[in-house]
Task: inverse folding
């Protein structure tokens, strides 16, 4: 399993101004926890953050604790219904709590507290960007960033206080919190206590190390003290329950280390629309081609029925038409074909003053319908064709007042077998 590295940044942190961009550096202390290991089993280390990031430990989930002085936590009342719409109006709901322009602030939404309010942590956007840049430049993507006081558990009617050197981390009974110099702790506690509330809320549970001085606490408060070996070890014990993660909204992508798709959202939508239009056009073209193919198949079937009247059943019109054409192309006595036979007689016919009124070819026989001046003229043409080695005869001969007509039937002569009569 992956270890967890808890890094607590100690103030002051050298944040840049809003119009500048740079790295953030500060003192820090960190504690590495192996899976299933108690925080007390590891010893914290301390040094500059830049030194830690020069040689960061491998295979760790990073939890970064930001000084509470740089994070304001408050509560807002969000409706249970239409919560998403209410979150969009959150910056305007915080205007009374923030002295600066709310557009420069980042608001992270936490859980609901015991009183039904919703916790909201507020920090400067530019400060958070600079801090994240410091980590990402070192190849580190923090899994969570929290205000350091958020590591203390929320306990109704009790103020949880962690004294760490000259600083105090405070978790208020309503789940909010703050970090402050130890010298101001008593004043802030008296200011934060609601005089009209029940005295049971004037209860303090505070933690300190053995070498830490006892802070000045308000009088008439119920105080429970607990000495711990190391404050960071005590904070690490509540790491799994800390829920005021600042890495939300525009900073969530940086948290996940994934590609920021938001700038490309419009382009992605347009691409999706173009793809849908292309698919629609393809579907319409396919439907049109299918209709044309059906019409073509119907035309081929009609042609086959017309060209093959003797066929009782037409199952494959293309194949049946091809077979009929091949048979027609190979038919004829002596293997004669239409074009070669027509070529032999056309020059002879064209030399005579006759008119060709029709041509027919079937079973190797060429029939030419002729019209001339007399039957004698047509008979002379027949004789000339026979001189070419062809068989020719006149059929259906007849005369009109000034012309004669007949069908000239032309075949190739069949060779006689040896020894047959002439």
Result:
């Amino acid at each position: 399993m992956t270890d967890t590295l808890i890094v607590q940044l100690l103030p002051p942190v050298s944040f840049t101004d809003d119009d500048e961009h740079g790295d953030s550096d500060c003192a820090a202390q960190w504690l590495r926890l192996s899976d299933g290991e108690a925080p007390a089993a590891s010893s914290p280390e301390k040094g500059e953050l830049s030194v830690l990031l020069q040689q960061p430990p491998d295979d760790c989930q990073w939890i970064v604790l930001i000084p509470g002085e740089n994070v304001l936590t408050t509560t807002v009342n969000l409706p249970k219904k239409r919560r998403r719409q209410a979150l969009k109006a959150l910056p305007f709901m915080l205007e009374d709590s923030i002295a600066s322009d709310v557009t420069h602030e980042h608001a992270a939404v936490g859980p609901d507290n015991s009183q039904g309010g919703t916790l909201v942590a507020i920090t400067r956007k530019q400060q958070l960007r600079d801090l994240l840049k410091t980590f990402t430049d070192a190849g580190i993507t923090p899994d969570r960033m929290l205000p350091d006081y958020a590591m203390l558990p929320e306990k109704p009617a009790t103020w949880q206080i962690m004294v760490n050197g000259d600083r105090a981390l405070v978790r208020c009974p309503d789940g909010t919190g703050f970090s402050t110099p130890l010298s101001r702790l008593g004043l802030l506690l008296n200011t934060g206590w609601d005089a009209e509330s029940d005295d049971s809320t004037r209860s303090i549970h505070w933690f300190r190390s053995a070498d830490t001085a006892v802070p000045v606490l308000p009088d008439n408060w119920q105080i429970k003290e607990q000495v711990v070996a190391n404050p960071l070890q005590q904070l690490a014990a509540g790491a799994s329950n800390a829920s005021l993660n600042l890495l939300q909204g525009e900073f969530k992508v940086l948290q996940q280390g994934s590609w920021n798709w938001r700038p490309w959202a419009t382009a992605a939508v347009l691409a999706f629309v173009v793809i849908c239009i292309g698919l629609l056009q393809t579907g319409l073209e396919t439907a049109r081609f299918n209709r044309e193919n059906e019409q073509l198949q119907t035309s081929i079937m009609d042609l086959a029925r017309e060209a093959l009247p003797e066929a009782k059943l037409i199952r494959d019109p293309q194949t049946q038409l091809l077979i009929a054409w091949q048979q027609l192309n190979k038919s004829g006595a002596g293997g004669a074909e239409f074009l070669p036979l027509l070529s032999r007689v056309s020059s002879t016919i064209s030399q005579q003053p006759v008119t060709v009124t029709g041509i027919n070819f079937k079973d190797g026989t060429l029939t030419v319908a002729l019209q001339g001046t007399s039957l004698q003229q047509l008979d002379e043409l027949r004789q000339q064709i026979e001189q070419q080695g062809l068989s020719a005869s006149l059929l259906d001969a007849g005369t009109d007042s000034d012309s004669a007509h007949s069908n000239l039937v032309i075949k190739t002569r069949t060779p006689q077998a040896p020894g047959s009569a002439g």
About this structure: Residues 332-336, 417-422 have pLDDT under 50 and may be disordered. The longest strand covers residues 390-399.
